[in-house]
Amino acid sequence: MQIRTMTREDLALALDWAAAEGWNPGLADAECFHAADPDGFLVGEVDGVPAGCVSAVRYPGGFGFLGFYIVRPEFRGRGHGLALWRAAMARLQPGVVGLDGVVAQQANYRKSGFTLVHRNVRYGVAAPVAPRVADAPPVVPLAAIPFTTLAAFDRRFFPAPRDSFLRAWIAAPGHVALAATGPAGLQGYAVLRPCRHGSKIGPLFAETPAAARALFAGLLAAAPAGPVFIDLPEPNADAVAMAVAAGMAPAFETARMYVGPAPDLPLAHIYGITSFELG
């Protein structure tokens, strides 16, 4: 296997592979993911034929995230996955590395030094019920918030600055981005993106349950017809209750795992993670 950095066109192919695996990528994910780290996506080729891929996205400050770990079925069992894994880890070390591991691979990740911190669970429903929120803060388009304010707020919920990704994520075609505001300033923000199947909400970061539900309701109202999904950290019991009240049920799970000291993130205020691919 020969491993090289993906081009933007390669990333579109990798998203097709992810869709075939049932991961349901967003329609604009290629452009947004590429903005996070243009050199952070690797493809492995066998005799010139793309056989597998992995992402190894580096953020400022020594944090990295590993995802998109796929070997095409016809190339499995030959050690190609291990070669991709080693190339990704080499790119991300030294530093703290995170990933969202599927159930079948979690034992292998432990062997590589990753430690389980918490489960992330995807909840979904064909026709969600929007919550009614008492004392809901005002919800406005996220474009009304200065980007510097948004970036500073986001930094509290993610282990590293990710300005390039954020600019692409909130403005991508079809994405709906909302902010909850109040006398104290920005109280939360959330983004809904169209996917191959339905829509996904993520991230959803909020200071209070009322702000979280106001954003959730606003995005459900803006969602096109079809199912809606949200990936949430299981330790946030209020996020789970919010999803269940909307009629959602668990559809998929991953394990958030890290090599190195796990970032101290405020899970009680993270109602939806951004993506399983980038954290």
TrEMBL record:
Domain of life: Bacteria
Positions of transmembrane segments: none
CDD domains recorded: NAT_SF (cd04301)
Domain N-acetyltransferase: 1-134
GO MF entry, a single one: acyltransferase activity, transferring groups other than amino-acyl groups
Pfam families on file: Acetyltransf_1, Acetyltransf_18
PROSITE patterns to which the protein is assigned, alphabetical: GNAT
Identification of the protein by name: GNAT family N-acetyltransferase
